[in-house]
Mannose binding lectin, putative
Amino acid sequence: MGAEVRWLINVIISSCLCAVLATIPHRKFEYKYSFKPPYLAQKDGSVPFWEYGGNAIASAENVRVAPSLRSQKGAIWTKSKTNFDWWEVDLVFRVTGRGRIGADGLAFWYTENKGAYDGPVFGSSDKWVGLGVFFDSFDNDNKHNNPYIMAMVNDGTREFDHANDGSSQMLSGCVKDFRNKPFPTRARIEYYMNTLTVLFHNGMTNSEQDYEICLRVENIFLPKTGYFGVSAATGGLADDHDVLHFLTTSLYPPGTQPPAPSTQGHKLTPEEEVKLTQEYQEYQKKLDHQKEEYKKEHPGAVKDPESEFEDWFESDSQRELRQIFSGQSQILDQVKLLSQKLDEVVGRQERALGLISNIHAAGGVPQQVGVQPGVPTGQQPVLIDTIRRHEVDAVLANQNNIIAQTRELRGFLVEIHTKAESLLQKSPPADTSNVLRELKDGIGALKQQQVPLNAPLNTCPSCVTPLMLFLGFAGHLVIMFIYLLYRDNKGAQAKKFY
Ligand SMILES: [Ca+2]
Ligand SMILES: [Ca+2]
């Protein structure tokens, strides 16, 4: 039972796989329509199976289609026409320049005929028949949408509208920055079953996976056979336009197979086969020989993969520089903002100083000032009523007055003190003499007021008569006699008790 289930699952999986595989085209690398480093160009500067011209320069590492000089144009075209219907091209390139803005751009071509090497459309011919994929660096129509990637199919009748960056002529496009990237940028252009797809890799990583879709257009009919080409141009501004890899793969829908050499157009005779094999071997020998010679002549120039990494690190530092630059721009903005604020503060201070000077000019009376320009209506300037000059003068005068009065008082006190001292020193004789004088005056007054002798005695209420005196004495004696009797009696009674 278990074995049957497993068998069933296997059948289902394999049928699914078959269904998936049935949609995947068969692929074949087309070396005659490709170039890549190392030894991209040979010693004589030629690129096998390719022709280049204009200002293009091929080296062992890349094809500099247009260098970073003003008004340069260059192109590189395949020597032979394609012999397959559907294809995919991997274009690895770098557009680098010192400027924040570059120009003009790079073009990928698939056209019925080879284009020019110094043409008006990104370095090649206008009114082409076939496909052009343009990497347009410069914003001619000033819509702030460059660098821009776009595809345009032409039937040989239309002129490229440079002024509008071909915006009304293109099939489709996308805004993608491909300039000054740390790693080479990549474009994958696929034409398969009348569908054109352009994928883009922004060169921020070195991964071969990070492609994004830029455009996909169906029902595209390109010439049955054609030439591949790359062109580039600079203007007033100039970038280096370098193509590192141009790798073409022919695609065959499931069920069709790439034609075997024997069935391709004409059958090779054994002589031709031998001749081609010899040619190939000679080519290989020549290549090896040139490699050796190059190594001998340039012992330090042969780059190993690590030095290639160094190049990338250099680019990394370029990127860091750019980041630093953007950081500094932000700092600059902030400094500008601060400067503005500082100006505002200075302006306010000047206004405040103006107000203060107005107050002083008005004799210290705070003025009701209207709304100043720049001062918000809700914030009337607050005028603090401080002490004024004449008030200060008055206070000072008062203080001086008090001090003078205090001094005066002090003088008086000192005078009093001295007088008191002198009085204390001189007082006893003066006192007795005064008392004596007073006594003398009193006696004198008494003498003057003496009672006449002939005046009756009873007229004096304070005088005691002799009778009254006698009666007083008699009463006193009686009281003493009674007391003595009482005391004797008491003493007799006390003795009785013993
Ligand atoms: Ca442009
Ligand atoms: Ca534009």
The radius of gyration is 65 Å. The chain is about 40% helix and 20% strand. Residues 136, 138, 140, 165 surround calcium ion (ligand 1) (CB under 6 Å).
